[in-house]
Amino acid sequence: MEATSPAGSARPQPHAQGAAGESASLLRRIKGKLFTWNILKTIALGQMLSLCICGTAITSQYLAERYKVNTPMLQSFINYCLLFLIYTVMLAFQSGSDNLLNILKKKWWKYILLGLADVEANYLIVRAYQYTTLTSVQLLDCFGIPVLMALSWFILYARYRVIHFIAVAVCLLGVGTMVGADILAGRENNSGSDVLIGDILVLLGASLYAVSNVCEEYIVKKLSRQEFLGMVGLFGTIISGIQLLIVEYKDIASIHWDWKTALLFVAFALCMFCLYSFMPLVIKVTSATSVNLGILTADLYSLFFGLFLFGYKFSGLYILSFTVIMVGFILYCSTPTRTAEPVESSMPPVTSIGIDNLGLKLEENLQEAHSAVL
């Protein structure tokens, strides 16, 4: 009996085996939920958009600091012209209800409002830098995310889960870390000429961005990407062209053109054109909210490039900020939102799975079916 006691005591307890098995199973489920192919693809697409925004920021800063060129409306006008020349012309050669003339007959006033919101959102954010601080712009620009979620709730009938609100809070915490790093690194040099006006401009610009993004998601998912880009290109060209003649004609006349300045304008226009062209593709497979969370890293990419181009000081908080934002972004993408059908009668509304994060939901269903078969 004594000889068998050590062997008996060395055996793992049944409850210990069960706990270890449950922990391993939980880890496998978390890994399978957070690191799927669709989530990794969404992350890659979001960071591609961030790099496009980074390119516009760097070229604008070069134009402003090295060549004393501050013409945001002219830069936007060139982008809208590119959209017009490609996507609006494509609509003109479409047949049937997708033809440019048919779209204008039915929805011309709606697209005028959309073009106005898009143009003014770009202009107000850039103009705010003249009045308020970098910190205020970075923090208040995040106001667009809750506005976007609210508009998606009422207009697109998106229904969020607790994990989505936690993910947004994590992303905003990452933005706060980035702002703190800016202050510690000494990038907060501009006190602003009128902080209140600048803050109001940022809030208005962020709200208009949210309106534009919600309209983009609706048009891309219900109609077509070409229609959205074509109509934004048409009315964006008209509105920005009129506005630049009013507010920037003196700045444009004072530009000393050479090949370097022209190259920076071309680089800005190409980055902005790629951003506008690819963003509808990403929104179609995810949502406007998830895209806006993913592009929060754009400022960090600009900072990383600024270490070499503009002599910025490095801070370890930048790495922490990037990590926190990416964690929040992955959390948001890990669970698809739901779409509540609009109420058309006195019957209770029927809630069903929407097309937000569609690829993720399909993959989740396949995994559940495979588990059921096993």
Automatic annotation (TrEMBL):
<dbReference type="GO" id="GO:0022857">
    <property type="term" value="F:transmembrane transporter activity"/>
</dbReference>
<feature type="transmembrane region" description="Helical">
    <location>
        <begin position="39"/>
        <end position="64"/>
    </location>
</feature>
<dbReference type="InterPro" id="IPR052221">
    <property type="entry name" value="SLC35F_Transporter"/>
</dbReference>
<dbReference type="InterPro" id="IPR009262">
    <property type="entry name" value="SLC35_F1/F2/F6"/>
</dbReference>
<protein>
    <submittedName>
        <fullName>Solute carrier family 35 member F2-like isoform X1</fullName>
    </submittedName>
</protein>
<feature type="transmembrane region" description="Helical">
    <location>
        <begin position="228"/>
        <end position="247"/>
    </location>
</feature>
<feature type="transmembrane region" description="Helical">
    <location>
        <begin position="259"/>
        <end position="279"/>
    </location>
</feature>
<feature type="transmembrane region" description="Helical">
    <location>
        <begin position="165"/>
        <end position="184"/>
    </location>
</feature>
<dbReference type="Pfam" id="PF06027">
    <property type="entry name" value="SLC35F"/>
</dbReference>
<feature type="transmembrane region" description="Helical">
    <location>
        <begin position="196"/>
        <end position="216"/>
    </location>
</feature>
<feature type="transmembrane region" description="Helical">
    <location>
        <begin position="316"/>
        <end position="333"/>
    </location>
</feature>
<keyword id="KW-1133">Transmembrane helix</keyword>
<keyword id="KW-0812">Transmembrane</keyword>
<feature type="transmembrane region" description="Helical">
    <location>
        <begin position="76"/>
        <end position="96"/>
    </location>
</feature>
<dbReference type="GO" id="GO:0016020">
    <property type="term" value="C:membrane"/>
</dbReference>
<feature type="transmembrane region" description="Helical">
    <location>
        <begin position="138"/>
        <end position="158"/>
    </location>
</feature>
<comment type="function">
    <text>Putative solute transporter.</text>
</comment>
<comment type="similarity">
    <text>Belongs to the SLC35F solute transporter family.</text>
</comment>
<dbReference type="InterPro" id="IPR037185">
    <property type="entry name" value="EmrE-like"/>
</dbReference>
<keyword id="KW-0813">Transport</keyword>
<feature type="transmembrane region" description="Helical">
    <location>
        <begin position="291"/>
        <end position="310"/>
    </location>
</feature>
<keyword id="KW-0472">Membrane</keyword>
